[in-house]
């Protein structure tokens, strides 16, 4: 059987590079969306993080509004909105406005994780009582986003999220890095995106299998639809990719020790200890980094193993130009 053509999409987190102002990371995200649209990528998703010294993307709904007016074709979405911080109605209204700006191009990816530490989550919403009520939040969000009437007896049955449209509505995606999100996506009949880059692929196959086996066709989707978000870096040569990867390895090692900060340039990294060198080599060995051909082969193999026709690529580098070039090389490899 012929493997279907693999669709490539983008996840960008507005990462901060040492020596560059944080606000530049937001402008770089806008520029990258325009660049990857021209290259032929299918979606451009952005993340939500708070009080994070490495990631400036704290308000996806605001940034998506800018992307909506700066792009023309590419689908735009959140990966994701951390729903327990907010009311479902407020999120539905925000994304209905976004759909009015870019009709038929908006994806609303939602997740349960805080995207921050516990203290910051409390600061975001000191009165938050949604954390244990996530499934009900998702149910309400789906009704409001799609202009569906709430169930009989619902407290907010008479409330509508505006502006409504007869032509389109945002596509709601369930995000996750464990079985929980897979089960919820299957229950509601939603598309599902697994955060491969968070777990380094651990649990991906199990979650996707669980999702597909338990999927219930819905008003939103008739058959299971899933993708993986994968960290990847392509360069002209494997040696060049290794050079730029060391920044990512240094960040991962530091993060695992409780230290967060801007991404350092490869030539400015503090020395690796012997144990850290072993750790960095292990990270490289399991990464989707290398020459463009090497990365493309790994992504095709991953997609085939998991039965996917879409991979979402997240790339971190200290250099804006190296990141943009990575997306160019992969677009060429996959004939976008």
TrEMBL record:
<comment type="similarity">
    <text>To bacterial alkanal monooxygenase alpha and beta chains.</text>
</comment>
<dbReference type="InterPro" id="IPR011251">
    <property type="entry name" value="Luciferase-like_dom"/>
</dbReference>
<dbReference type="InterPro" id="IPR019949">
    <property type="entry name" value="CmoO-like"/>
</dbReference>
<dbReference type="InterPro" id="IPR050766">
    <property type="entry name" value="Bact_Lucif_Oxidored"/>
</dbReference>
<dbReference type="GO" id="GO:0005829">
    <property type="term" value="C:cytosol"/>
</dbReference>
<feature type="domain" description="Luciferase-like">
    <location>
        <begin position="12"/>
        <end position="309"/>
    </location>
</feature>
<dbReference type="Pfam" id="PF00296">
    <property type="entry name" value="Bac_luciferase"/>
</dbReference>
<dbReference type="GO" id="GO:0016705">
    <property type="term" value="F:oxidoreductase activity, acting on paired donors, with incorporation or reduction of molecular oxygen"/>
</dbReference>
<dbReference type="InterPro" id="IPR036661">
    <property type="entry name" value="Luciferase-like_sf"/>
</dbReference>
<protein>
    <recommendedName>
        <fullName>Luciferase-like monooxygenase</fullName>
    </recommendedName>
</protein>
